[in-house]
Amino acid sequence: MEKFHIKKLVPEEWELLQKIRIEMVRNNPECFLESEESARARSKEEWIKRLSDQVNRIFGFFENDQIIGLIGIFSHDQLPDKILEIGMSYTTPEYRKKGLTTLGYRYCLDYAESLTGFSAVQVSHRQGNEASRAAIMRAGFQFLKLTHKSFGDGKEDISNIYIYHLQDKENE
């Protein structure tokens, strides 16, 4: 995997995020919560803001200088207290099954372990997305519950939610 690398995207790379995000929601609307129209409507300032947050991180997968996927870890007000969420996991089709998603989960979980004030990380996938389920399980997550979500293809469906408990830094 030496020609591939992963790195945190910075605000100056907002166009890379915009490009890959629009690609992922266009090509796989059944896998993501956002629609292509919503992604295309986002302003330059909104893209930059996504990469400027003090806690949230978006990591890009690269082959040399070409972005070929991404994954993010987020804190937001729709999550339970002290919980982070991994999302936006995507690898372009020709680069799948090369270990990039596993590497992305490791980066996100290592980052989560470095933070204080968080106890767990959750991740979800649409019912029936076996590739996502397998990657989530390989990363060490445990099934938590089922819920309903609206997806980018305009349909509501079952979403499987998983949890990964972070090391208890207060009792070490």
Report on the architecture of this protein.
By secondary structure, this protein is of the alpha+beta class. It has a single domain (4-171), classed as 3-Layer(aba) Sandwich (Aminopeptidase), CATH 3.40.630. It is 30% helix and 33% strand. The protein is built from 5 helices and 7 strands, in the order E-H-H-H-E-E-E-H-E-H-E-E. Strands 1-2-3-4-5-7-6 form a 7-stranded mixed beta sheet, with helices on both faces. The mean pLDDT is 90.
Structure characteristics:
33% strand; 172 residues; 7-stranded mixed β-sheet; alpha+beta; 7 strands
What is the CATH-assigned architecture? 3-Layer(aba) Sandwich
Across the major sheet, the strand order is 1-2-3-4-5-7-6
Order of helices and strands: EHHHEEEHEHEE
Cα separation of the termini: 35 Å
CATH third-level topology: Aminopeptidase
Give the count of helical stretches.
5
* Percent helix: 25-40%
Q: What's the shape?
A: globular
Structural class by secondary-structure content: alpha+beta
Oligomer category: single chain
Number of structural units classed as domains:
1
